[in-house]
C-alpha cells in the first residue's frame, strides 16, 4: 500500500508478528470473509486477481482456495510485508508478490477481473491517483472490492475533529470514483463501521440531441 515513509517502516517491522496479532481475529478476518463473499457474487470466476496492499498475503492465500485457477498478484509498499508474504506462501505458491504502491501499479491496462483493497485505502498517499490506477488495470467488467472506514454518522465528526482527511466521506469517495469512471454497484457493512464496497465501471452517458 502507499504510506508515508514512517508508515512503511512501521509495517515492515510489524510483518513477522502481523498474522498473529489480535486484530486479525477481531477485525481483519471478518472483513476478509465479507470481501471474498462479495467478490464471489460479483465475479464468480475471476481469471486474474490483484490485492493492493496485500500485507503478508493472507487474503490472497484464502482467495487461491476460493478461486482455483485464477492468477493472483499482490503488491505492498512495505518490503518486510512482501518478504513475509513470500515466506508464508512458500516457494511452490502460485501467488506473485511485488514491492509497489497503489499509485504506480506495475501491470498492463485492463489486466485484472478482480481487485481487493482491505483496510489499506486510508493509507494511500494519493487516493485519487490510486483509484485511477485501479481503474486502469481493471477489465471492463471487472470489480474492485474496497473495504475500509468510510466516514458516516458520528464518524464524520471524529474525522473533522482529528483532521483524518484520508478517511473519506461517502460523497467524497463517490466523487473520486466518478473521476476515474467508476461507481459503487453493491455494498455491505462489517461490524457496522466498516464498509465493503463492490466498485465497477460507471454506465456510459448517452448523449441526447
Quick take:
Helices cover 40% and strands 25% of the residues. With 209 residues, the protein is an alpha/beta fold. It has one domain: 3-Layer(aba) Sandwich (Rossmann fold).
Describe the structure.
This protein is an alpha/beta fold and about 210 residues long. The chain has one domain: 3-Layer(aba) Sandwich (Rossmann fold). It has seven helices and seven strands. The chain has a seven-stranded mixed sheet, sandwiched between helices. Strand 4, helix 5 and strand 5 form a beta-alpha-beta unit. Helix 1 (about 5-20) runs parallel beside helix 4. The radius of gyration is 16 Å and the shape is globular.
Characteristic terms for this protein:
25% strand, 7 strands, 40% helix, alpha/beta, disordered N terminus, 209 residues, Rossmann fold
Give me the secondary-structure topology:
Elements: H1 5-18, H2 22-42, E1 48-52, H3 58-66, E2 71-76, H4 79-89, E3 95-99, E4 112-118, H5 127-137, E5 138-149, H6 154-161, H7 170-179, E6 182-190, E7 194-201
Parallel strand pairs: 1-2, 1-4, 2-3, 4-5
Antiparallel strand pairs: 5-7, 6-7
Helix pairs in contact: 1-4
Amino acid at each position: 500500500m502507499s504510506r508515508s515513509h514512517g508508515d512503511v517502516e512501521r509495517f515492515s517491522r510489524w510483518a513477522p508478528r502481523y498474522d498473529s496479532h489480535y486484530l486479525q481475529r477481531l477485525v481483519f478476518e471478518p472483513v476478509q470473509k465479507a470481501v471474498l463473499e462479495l467478490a464471489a457474487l460479483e465475479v464468480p470466476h475471476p481469471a486474474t486477481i490483484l490485492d493492493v496492499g496485500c500485507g503478508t498475503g493472507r487474503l490472497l492465500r484464502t482467495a487461491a482456495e476460493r478461486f482455483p485457477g485464477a492468477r493472483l498478484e499482490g503488491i505492498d509498499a512495505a518490503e518486510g510485508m512482501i518478504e513475509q508474504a513470500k515466506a508464508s506462501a512458500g516457494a511452490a505458491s502460485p501467488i506473485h508478490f511485488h514491492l509497489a504502491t497503489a499509485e504506480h501499479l506495475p501491470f498492463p491496462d485492463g489486466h485484472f477481473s478482480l481487485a481487493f483493497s482491505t483496510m489499506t485505502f486510508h493509507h494511500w498517499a494519493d487516493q485519487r491517483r490510486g483509484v485511477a490506477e485501479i481503474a486502469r488495470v481493471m477489465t471492463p467488467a471487472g470489480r474492485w472490492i474496497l473495504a475500509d472506514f468510510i466516514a458516516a454518522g458520528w464518524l464524520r465528526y471524529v474525522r473533522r475533529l482529528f483532521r483524518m482527511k484520508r478517511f473519506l466521506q461517502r460523497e467524497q469517495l463517490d466523487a473520486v470514483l466518478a473521476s476515474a469512471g467508476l461507481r459503487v454497484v453493491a455494498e455491505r457493512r462489517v461490524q457496522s463501521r466498516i464498509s465493503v464496497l463492490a466498485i465497477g465501471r460507471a454506465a456510459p452517458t448517452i448523449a441526447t440531441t
